[in-house]
Amino acid sequence: MTIFTKKKIKSWTLAFALGGSLMVGVPALERATAPVALSSKATAGQMSLTVFDVGQGDSILAQVGDKQILIDGGPDSTVLERLGNAMPAGDREIDLVILTHPHSDHVNGLAQVLSRYKVDKIMATDVTAPIVSFRTWRSEIMQNNIPVDDPQKIKTERVGDMEYDVLSAGTEAGIRGSEHDGNSDGLNDSSIVGMLKFGQKRFLLMGDATTVIEDKLMAAPDDLKADFLKVGHHGSNYSTSEKFIDAVAPVYAATSVGAKNPYGNPAWRVMQLIKNKGIVGYRTDENGTVTALTDGSSLQVASERVR
Ligand SMILES: [Zn+2]
């Protein structure tokens, strides 16, 4: 017999309120009109996609049962605590780790993840960076003999019932051979951009790609429509054009950004754009960790805090 604790009953009540689809015969209420606070764990067969609050940086965990894809690791060891809370107790194995690009706010935490967790596979570009954490990341991969998939060759990763399709990825040669605006050393646009799919639900994860890549994606045949958008480049003004938002047409958007960061992220323009398009916007500096839960047909999103 299942014993429901008070906490469980509360979560279920909220889950019903948010996504009536759990009740047979009741149509799914697909969207809340504003950010919702809910401490949520996936039930059997559900996927959770968690945009961790790691300050100024990115770290995203997609998980079904004991299968995980971790995308980026944030700027420091905060990710270890976040993983500890999000993963099943005793699970020390991550099926796939993706490094979108080797800037410190994405790779620093990942280098630490490799020394604490058994990682079965990695996806990363050949783009390098002259920073200590990137050297550590590389040496951990070699020491532990972890296979690395090149997104130029492998376009789809499957972990459990999750599918991750590569939409864009740069190369070292590509970066060195191109010119960049003052904002970037080219690394941002080398980001692995991916569409994560679970059932009918689609999550577009932009890394730090700017409008340069957004324009390329819109010119390519890939379907960009997504239910959930991880906003590019911490909501900076160099990313997230109106055309692009219209092409993706997400129901939810999450911006991973640190409070009082020195870059002025997120840009007012981007936050207004999300609001004006009627998208339910979350940002980690205000809402904390953001979690999306889906059974493949309905989707609920909630955060640690509502502001
Ligand atoms: Zn970044």
What report would you give on this structure?
- The strands form three sheets. Strands 8-7-5-3-2-1-16-17 form an eight-stranded mixed sheet, with helices on one face. A seven-stranded mixed sheet has the order 9-10-11-12-13-14-15. Strands 4-6 form a two-stranded parallel ribbon.
- The chain has 307 residues and is α/β, with parallel strands linked by helices.
- The protein is globular, with a radius of gyration of 18 Å.
- The longest helix is centred in the N-terminal third of the chain and has 13 residues, at 6-18.
- The chain has nine helices and 17 strands.
- It starts with 5 loop residues before the first helix and ends with a strand.
- It has one domain (39-299): Ribonuclease Z/Hydroxyacylglutathione hydrolase-like (Metallo-beta-lactamase, Chain A, 4-Layer Sandwich), CATH 3.60.15.
- A hairpin with a 4-residue loop joins strand 16 and strand 17.
- The chain binds zinc ion (ZN).
- How are the strands of the biggest sheet laid out side by side? 8-7-5-3-2-1-16-17
Largest beta sheet, briefly? 8 strands, mixed
Rounded to the nearest angstrom, the radius of gyration is 18 Å
H and E order: HEEEHEEHEEHEEEHEEHEHEHEHEE
Small-molecule components bound:
zinc ion
Please report the number of helical segments: 9
Relative strand content: 15-25%
Q: If you average the pLDDT, what whole number results?
A: 88
